[in-house]
Structures are given as structure tokens and as C-alpha cells.
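In response to reviewer comment 3 from the previous cycle, which asked for concrete evidence that the modeling workflow produces usable outputs, we include below a single protein chain processed end to end. The sequence was submitted unchanged, and the resulting C-alpha cells are shown without manual editing.
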Amino acid sequence: MRFFITVLVLGATDLVNGHPDLAKKLAEAARAQDKLATRSTALLGDLLHTVESALTVTGFEIKSILNGTRSAFADAATYDPPPKDSDDCRRDTCCIWQYIANDMVDAFYEGEECSALARGAIRLGFHDAGAWSSDLSFGGADGSILLSNEMLRSENAGLEGIASQMFQWKEEYEAYNVSMADMIQFGAMVATTACPGGPRIRFFVGREDSTRAAPTGLMPSPFQTAEALIDLFQAKTFTGADLIALVGAHSVSQQFFVDQKQAGASQDTTAGIWDNNFYTETVDPETPSGVFKFPSDLNLASSPETSSTWNQFTGPAGQDNWSRAYAPAYFRMSLLGVNNINALTDCTKTLPPTRAIPRRR
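The workflow returned the following C-alpha cells.
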């Protein structure tokens, strides 16, 4: 499609010059095509200016995942760590993360579902990393949501419980050189696997903390139009298709403040399960009892620019389609604003295994 638009523009210069409205429409079509490319392949942070010969093994891996030549999905490999305070554990950067993962699993599993803390951890990961734009030199996945005054902002209301838990874990592991930025993103990754159906996504540690609050106005509103949301996420290096995949995390969300009369309402009928019911039920004219549909989700589901992508995530094939789109999109999210990517360490092996969606009764 993009090639077609380019050829059309090049081959019809005189026609376009004589018809300003046509030129405007063609330019809008080209911009829309850029926005809705299948997935982003933009590089981030220090990878933007690191020459190939200077890439570490980790830097090369992350670059390959970002540009789409390697998968963001983790394999099934797990890790049996040495004792926590042993010399062997101190020599292995990932060792302590296995102990943190074990603590998180205890808090994030709730029978056949994931707990409210797990769902909060997923949202916290979004809200720390998402407060970033490509024209900024700070912000993103830097822990500032908990290390500055960002928690006072209205968009972060409801995160107090998981914030308190993160501070407890940070204090417990303070002596092990664990950053809050890593703790938050690791929590989001562990929580995603704790929710049955959630993908296991590659995870790297070494993010640096910041006490500098991110600018305001960088987080999505539940009332925004599809066009405004696409533009907002494009400034974070996401395509429209990435955006539609990311909002699927509402599969395990609840709202308490958008409509306080329906406080506690989930966004689909299976709030503790990472399934694609969210996509299917959002476009259903009927709203099940106990479900609240965000106006922004309805806008994305019905917009001519994004509805076709949305519909790919509905129905029987939708779960796999969504999972394949979500993993690289959230992997990218977890690295927004990180400027030492080439120095990170792959600790994917410490993540828990995925959980199957319970058989529907």
C-alpha cells in the first residue's frame, strides 16, 4: 500500500499541483499508512547511535527484537539459582531476580486467575514506561513513577496498592543493587505470565533509576479519540497496530475512577484471565453486567483506521494474533527512555512459565 501511494504521488505531480485537495488527501493517506504499519521497527535509546561493531551480545539481541528479526517471546528455559547470599549468586546478575520472581509469584497468583496486585503491576509497568516521547531526553522506564511525585497525578490513581508492594520489595532487595525501574518492568512481565493466557516476554535488567518526574500530558486518556491516541503512541515509536495490541491489557483491568458509580467494573467478563474476550466484548453492542467499556476503547474499535486490526484479535483465532502482536509491543514499551540498552543483561530465564487459560465451564 505504501509503495502504491508513493508511485501514485510521483506519477501524478502535475495533477496534484493543480488539485490542492487531492494533494492533502494523498498526504493524509501516506501518514495513515505509516501510523498503521504492522509493527514498529524503530530503534531506541543508545542503539540509535551505536555502530554494529560496538554492539554487545545483549545489544545485538535487543536490536534484533526491536527491528523484528528476532522474537520477543521467551523460550521455556528456566533457572535454578544458587543460594541467595552465596558468592555464586553474587557473581550472577540474574540470580537475585529469581528470588524476586518467587516473591512476586506468591503475590500475583490467585487460584486459576491473577490477583489484583498482578493486574496493578501490569498497569504500573505501562504508566512508568509510557510517560515518554521520542523528543525527550528523560522519562520512560526509569522508576520515576514511584521515585518522584508522579503518583499524585490523576492518571495514576488506583496504583497505591502495587506501589506500596513495590517499595516493600525494593527495600527487601536494596542490598542487591536492584533498581526500581527494573523492579517495575519485571513486575509487569511476571504479572503477565501470572495471568492465564499471558505471554512470556524477553526481559533484560540494568535500567537506571531517576527521581525526575516525567512531563505531564504523555499518558492516554480514557476519553481520547482514535486519531489522538494513534498520534500519542506514534510519538512513542508505536504503530497503530502496536497500540491496538497494547490496549488489550485491559483484558485484566478494572476501572474505579472513570465512572465512580461503576467502581470496580472490569473491561471484560474474565478480569483475571489474559484472553481476547476484551476485544470481542468491546465490539458487541450488548454490555455484560459488571463490564465497563472505556470510550477510548470504543473509539479505537470503531475507527476506520484501527477497526480492522481490532477485529483480528476477536474470535477463536484472535488470542494467538493478539499474543504475537502484544509481545513485541510490550517489549518495546519496557525499554522506552532507556539509554544504556547495550549494557543490559538478559535475565529472561528468571521469569515464571506461562499458565494455560482454564477450560471454560
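The first strand starts at residue 109 and ends at 110. We consider this sufficient to address the reviewer's concern, and the full set will be provided in the supplementary archive.
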